[in-house]
Amino acid sequence: MTDYDAILVPGGGLTPDGRPAPWVRARLDQAIRRWSGQPIIALSAGTTHKPPPRDARGFPIFEAVASSRYLQEQGIPGEVLYSETASYDTIGNAYFARVVHTGPMGIRRPLVITSEFHLARTRAVFDWIFGLPGTTYSLLYESVPDAGLDGVALRARVERERLALTNVFSLRQSLTSLPELHRWLFTSHSAYTAAPFTPAAGAAGGTY
Question: How far apart are CA 14 and CA 19, in angstroms?
Fold first, then answer.
């Protein structure tokens, strides 16, 4: 028996043809290795840093759906796969995972699997959001190697993660309940409001 009751895989980007990026496939492959019947919840609609790829009918491909399809292709049964298709960043991954899936499903001990470059911010964000008053959670984390990223891109992304982590620590001090987080997310976060957002530039842009 495992000590986790679900597996969460944060979003990380798609290839131009709508497949999970190499570093996301590494997360999904680890989820397959760790799976023993629990729900696997793939997170993310996409990213604000570039337009989504489209399928043959012209519809956007949601990242979580692409991840769930990959898992199913590898033999994971569809009845344990859940897609979260509302979020566009790590904060959104955690918020929507909690309010859309883990809460209604009664999940209390999720295992979160992400890339090494993304782990520190993922842990800070998920500990914050799943630690807000309400349901009590006990989260576990695992990282996988940063597959498919060259040195320049990886260094740029690591630096971007470092700066974003500072912002997370600031937000944790001011947003201490789900209602406060909800209001901030939909009135102040440019990924979820009508405000314009600024895509990542340079080498880091290719890591989304």
Answer: 5
Name 22's bridge partners. Answer: none
Mean pLDDT of 168-172: 96
Which residues have C-beta within 8 Å of that of residue 79, sequence separation ≥ 6? none
Q: Residue 182 has which token pair?
A: 């909800």
State the residue for tokens 């260094």. 155
Long-range pairs of 16-20 with CB within 8 A, sequence gap ≥ 24:
16/53, 17/53, 18/53, 18/54, 18/55, 18/61, 18/66, 19/66, 19/70, 20/63, 20/66, 20/67, 20/70
Within 10 Å of residue 117's Cβ, how many Cβ atoms? 22
pLDDT tens digits along 9-28: 999 999 999 999 999 999 99
Cβ atoms of 20 and 14 closer than 8 Å? yes
pTM above 0.90, yes or no: yes
